[in-house]
Amino acid sequence: MEQYYDALENQDAQQREERLFRALAGQIVHAKARTAYFGEHLHDVAPADVRDRTALARLPITRKSELITLQPAALPFAGMVAVPTGELARIFQSPGPIYDPEGKRPDWWRFARALFAAGFRRGDIVHNSFSYHLTPAGAMLESAAHALGCAVIPAGVGNTELQARAAADLAADGYTGTPSFLKTMLEKAHEMGLDCRRLTKACVSGEALPPSLRAALNDLGVAVRQCYGTADLGLIAYESPALDGMIIDEHVIVEIVRPGTGDPVPEGEVGELVVTTLTPEYPLIRFATGDLSAILPGRSPCGRTNARIKGWMGRADQATKVKGMFVHPQQVAELIRRHPEIRRARLVVERDGEADVMTLHCEAEGAGEALQSSLVETVQAVLKLKGRVAFAAAGILPNDGKVIDDRRTVP
């Protein structure tokens, strides 16, 4: 079996840096000329001067969290997309809402590299349980599977019994989706007496993969690899068979900066992940994801020579990701706005076994079953995720300005 997706993966590190920064100079020229936002944002930047990471660190940051306010002022993409909207392949709406473009080139999000490292090959049948509705995860992994020459079962989310039946009947070789749903689906298949023994590999994302869950899936016969990306940037990093950190994609430049600044931190120190992409249609330059991570020392034992990150280590702001969907403080504010009875509220995210669980803790007038039922419906409507509601006595919730409390531990 081939070891690498392409020759870039074991390229000399210095050659990689030179390649990336030659491409970056052209990307800055392109972004300034073709987008209103970067034309203004990088107005005083001379592209030819951005030759290395020291020069890159002098450029201004654009924060993902800012898109929620920037986009409504210049719909749909805040002047950051370099092609006419009608020439895109798809337009997605992520929570916030944030609108995300997809170009027409094959494997536009670049996830084929991650699937290859996870063992997917031409002729495989891929069971894709990422969402196909408005958000891009389903399309990301489907386009990657097609680029490798795989067939795809577009399963989407929910309908566990139907998904288990399809994976068994169609002899799926691999799975893409969240790891917790893979475990749920395989357990349902076993309960139904279905044969899913062909499903031996998975490329998962969207939520944490604690060692206990990886071990449980391995016991079920599935070798699991993680990938990490966003709706804005596509693939950022991925696991290889070495299972030693996440290797950075070959078409992005990753920096780890001190949260709230654009200043790079020393190797190994935890900070906010900032990514510059070479995607021509959406030329995001120094895009702060709001995610925390750290650069690992050395190189992967698998032979790939690019730098590695530790993976997702939490959020630099209060936004968090639940079951593959971002939840923003602005959405919690909308929940409160719709229910004047609420005096104070805090959304708590925890782990229940291997699953993410959200609970809206409220201090509210008229607390009772009727309000609880109404709030559960509003949580589903605003956050696009199911959640619980718990009432607290007046003065119990801390008066510290925090509206999202992510209590999940990072493995």
Describe the structure.
With 411 residues, the chain is of the alpha/beta class. 28% of the residues lie in helices and 25% in strands. The chain has 11 helices and 21 strands. The chain has helices at residues 13-34, 36-41, 53-56, 67-73, 112-117, 137-148, 160-169, 179-191, 211-219, 329-338, 369-383; strands at 62-63, 90-94, 98-102, 125-128, 151-154, 174-177, 201-204, 223-230, 234-238, 246-248, 252-257, 271-277, 287-293, 295-296, 308-309, 320-322, 325-327, 342-352, 355-364, 388-391, 404-406. It has a 9-stranded mixed sheet, with helices on both faces. Helix 10 runs antiparallel to helix 11 (369-383).
Task: Name its key features.
nine-stranded mixed β-sheet, single chain, 21 strands, 411 residues, alpha/beta, four-stranded mixed β-sheet, 11 helices
Low-confidence segments, given as residue ranges, are none
- Alpha carbon gyration radius: 22 Å
Name the strands of the widest sheet in spatial order: 5-4-6-7-8-9-10-15-14
Strand content: 15-25%
Distance between the termini: 31 Å
- Give the tally of β-strands: 21
The backbone outline, from C-alpha atoms, is globular
